[in-house]
Design goal:
Number of strands: 2
Distance between the termini: 24 Å
CATH superfamily: Rhodopsin 7-helix transmembrane proteins
Order of helices and strands: HEEHHHHH
Number of helices: 6
CATH architecture: Up-down Bundle
Largest sheet: 2 strands, antiparallel
Helix content: over 70%
Strand content: under 5%
Shape: elongated
């Protein structure tokens, strides 16, 4: 829960900075956004991701039935892959060149796919050692992670489509923001439910009253 609080705290700070940067970069008249000449600083979002994405993965490993060297090894692999994913995606994000965006987006996808592979392979093995109730929550957690993280590459590729650049910019920011809400607060609630159930099971208590799992 400490990790979950740190994650949403970091995200809240960077969203305030992004809001300020957006307000400086555009003026609004009715429903029309007009550039002021000041650039919108996308770096705030990537700074947020650089800190929060590795913590999200650490948060997941923390509630799994993994100990010792196996836990340390999994955390190291996931954190390194997460950092590479964010760092490699940033040059393409700030570029208006199609080829540059595609190249860096492709490179960023490699650690992204590796993270999914580790979570599905290693987490799948760990899930077999958990109770049926926890297995359902872990399954839902993986699906939530896949659904929310799947929004990012779609939003990333919007500038490459034949749509108005201003519309693509707004749609990209909306897509990123929706995915962030799902991938941080909602994800944290599922982690909390898993941690609470496991704690109660260790104490021999009933898990009644825990956030219900989706069957």
């Amino acid at each position: 829960m400490v990790l979950a609080a740190i994650i949403v705290g970091i995200a809240a700070y960077h969203y305030v900075r992004m809001f300020t940067s957006w307000s400086t970069a555009f003026t609004v008249s009715g429903a029309i956004y007009t550039p002021t000449g000041e650039p919108f600083n996308e770096a705030y979002r990537y700074a947020d991701w650089l800190l929060t994405v590795p913590l999200l993965l650490v948060e997941l490993v923390a509630v799994l039935h993994i100990t010792g060297q196996q836990r340390s090894g999994m955390i190291a692999r996931l954190v390194i892959a997460a950092v590479l994913m964010i760092v490699l995606g940033y040059p393409g994000e700030i570029s208006s060149d199609v080829t540059t965006r595609l190249v860096w987006g492709t490179l960023s996808s490699i650690p992204f796919l590796y993270i999914l592979y580790v979570l599905w392979r290693d987490l799948g093995a760990v899930m077999e050692r958990e109770s049926a109730e926890v297995r359902v929550l872990l399954r839902n957690l993986r699906l939530l992670l896949l659904a929310s993280w799947g929004v990012y590459p779609i939003a990333y590729l919007l500038p490459l489509l034949s749509i108005d650049p201003a519309t693509a910019l707004v749609a990209r920011q909306v897509g990123y923001s929706i995915a962030d809400i799902v991938a941080k607060p909602a994800y944290g609630l599922l982690i909390y439910a898993i941690a609470r159930i496991k704690t109660q099971q260790e104490r021999g208590e009933s898990s009644e009253g825990t956030i219900p799992a989706i069957a």
